[in-house]
């Protein structure tokens, strides 16, 4: 594996009978890069991400994540990544601190490290006043930011975020992206799927999926130049129209 490439994908495909959900996608992602995986709902983004994180077997193709093969090293992949799903993944009936402690234990952190991480996360997110309240009582935006931070608690090499800002207000979305920037600046690779085309502007590079295929991949600036578009939404619309 190229030392600077923490994700390498070649011809990755997933079929369900005669239906091709992900069609021979090829790309790589560098260490510390914010890589946007864009496309409309149903384009194949979630299926692709499930193959990359080791919970769905590809039909064909190749992929290595943090140096581990998706076919043979799924458990090693899971230990070296963080993952935040579309749906809120924390437990509503546990407190903020209890959730952090629980997931820290799942990721194999020591009690001392969990205590240190809990205190740091609660302070960073400004959750001191609600640390002992049930997560179910928190606003959605706070839940999403907490979920992201918990996915990073074990200092993974790569964090996969599947539609992380769905349903939150614009201000919270911006705050969430500030957390992403901080993670990337520390060397964590951020792989983020979204159908919000304006969020593409925040990424170092973006790919755009249409009907299971990657139809474009480059920096936002170069894609706008290539498609003679004022913004990424215009790029996407031109691709979607063929």
TrEMBL record:
<protein>
    <submittedName>
        <fullName>ABC-2 type transport system ATP-binding protein</fullName>
    </submittedName>
</protein>
<feature type="domain" description="ABC transporter">
    <location>
        <begin position="7"/>
        <end position="236"/>
    </location>
</feature>
<dbReference type="GO" id="GO:0005524">
    <property type="term" value="F:ATP binding"/>
</dbReference>
<keyword id="KW-0067">ATP-binding</keyword>
<keyword id="KW-0813">Transport</keyword>
<keyword id="KW-0472">Membrane</keyword>
<dbReference type="GO" id="GO:0016020">
    <property type="term" value="C:membrane"/>
</dbReference>
<dbReference type="InterPro" id="IPR003439">
    <property type="entry name" value="ABC_transporter-like_ATP-bd"/>
</dbReference>
<dbReference type="GO" id="GO:0016887">
    <property type="term" value="F:ATP hydrolysis activity"/>
</dbReference>
<dbReference type="InterPro" id="IPR027417">
    <property type="entry name" value="P-loop_NTPase"/>
</dbReference>
<keyword id="KW-0547">Nucleotide-binding</keyword>
<dbReference type="Pfam" id="PF00005">
    <property type="entry name" value="ABC_tran"/>
</dbReference>
<dbReference type="InterPro" id="IPR003593">
    <property type="entry name" value="AAA+_ATPase"/>
</dbReference>
<keyword id="KW-1133">Transmembrane helix</keyword>
<keyword id="KW-0812">Transmembrane</keyword>
